[in-house]
Design goal:
Pfam families: Pirin, Pirin_C. By secondary structure, the chain is mostly beta strands. Helices cover 4% and strands 43% of the residues.
Length: 332
């Protein structure tokens, strides 16, 4: 194997990640027309509602029973980065924050000491299909930041730089690419310190085109997720679709698309190098801390749930917006 390539693996559900990342999942659902109440117009018969992760007719309901998505659930000790390339996501949380984002927007949420939120996928269109393409990435917090106050931040697609190169484009969600900087991440994030070299890039390589990834410092991890196209070539190695590639970040890496356009997600960062204890939606450093997190959630519900339903969605005719915990509302 070429020395720039450390490992090649099949993309499962969820995708394999490296420290400082904990989890990455790719949702691609070709939802049908909406029923006017933000759910699918098609029948739900034959689905395991509440736990529907099997692709049927091109889409899934996940934990939703009438509207697809993930009703209220808790998190502690890490961050979620949610990239909504296509379709929309309705956010509601225990801080009273809310939002509707999509069509290229990114939500960055620091769970910190604990928060509940819901992520529903409203089917806004009743006259056409509602395709959803969404990534969710879990970025760990170091021990010193496990109990910071929860934080909710929107990176609107109008504010995210997209670098147009001759044979490719790079959407810079976190970090920098050839001196082009992403919007600032959440303030307590591992990504907030530039020395940690955290980067999240979405790269589109045109057919028969290429791109060269810049060098990072030695010890920084970099994983390439090839999720759309036919084949790509990395340092002379041919890679099939739906594979991940762990590469040596301290070397320039050239990616070539062959007979089709290719799309890749790249996650990069210096490892936190601390013990990780995980149980479902809680990520701490020790099993004792995990038990404490579960006990506290049972007692406090991390502030409770201020919305009428656990699968809360916003008004059908509402556009993209964010309501922050202090009551500030931003309309897009």
């Amino acid at each position: 194997m070429i020395d720039e390539i450390k490992n090649i693996f099949k993309l499962d559900f969820p995708w394999q990640t490296q420290d400082p990342f904990l989890f990455c999942v790719y949702h691609l659902d070709h939802y049908p027309k909406g029923n006017g109440e933000l759910g699918p117009a098609d029948s739900l018969q034959g689905r395991n509602l509440g736990n529907d992760f099997t692709v049927k007719d091109g889409w899934r309901m996940y934990h939703g029973t009438t509207i697809p998505g993930f009703p209220a659930h808790p998190h502690r000790g890490f961050e979620t980065i949610t990239i909504a390339n296509k379709g929309f996501c309705d956010h509601s949380d225990s801080l009273g924050a809310a939002g509707r984002f999509g069509e290229g927007d990114v939500q960055w949420m620091t769970a910190g000491s604990g928060v509940q939120h819901s992520e529903m996928f409203p089917l806004l269109h009743t006259e056409k299909e509602n395709t959803l393409e969404l990534f969710q990435i879990w970025l760990n917090l170091p021990q010193k930041s496990k109990f910071v106050d929860p934080h909710f931040k929107m990176l609107w697609h109008e504010d995210i730089p997209v670098l147009e190169l001759d044979e490719s484009t790079v959407k810079i969600i976190a970090g920098n690419f050839k001196k082009h900087n992403a919007p600032k991440p959440a303030p307590d994030s591992w990504a907030a310190d530039n020395e940690n070299e955290v980067a999240v890039w979405l790269i589109h390589i045109h057919v028969n085109g290429s791109i060269t990834l810049p060098k990072a410092e030695k010890g920084t991890i970099r994983t390439i997720y090839f999720y759309e196209g036919s084949t790509i070539e990395i340092s002379g190695e041919s890679i099939q679709l739906n594979h991940g590639i762990e590469v040596e970040a301290s070397k320039e890496i050239k990616l070539n698309a062959n007979d089709k356009d290719a799309k890749v997600l790249i996650l990069q960062g210096k490892p936190i190098n601390e013990p990780v204890a995980k149980y479902g939606p809680f990520v701490m450093n020790t099993d004792e801390e995990l038990q404490n997190a579960m006990d506290e959630f049972r007692l406090t519900q991390f502030g409770g749930w201020p919305w009428r339903y656990p699968d809360h969605v916003h008004e059908t005719n509402r556009g993209r917006f964010a309501k922050y915990p202090d009551g500030t509302i931003v309309e897009k």
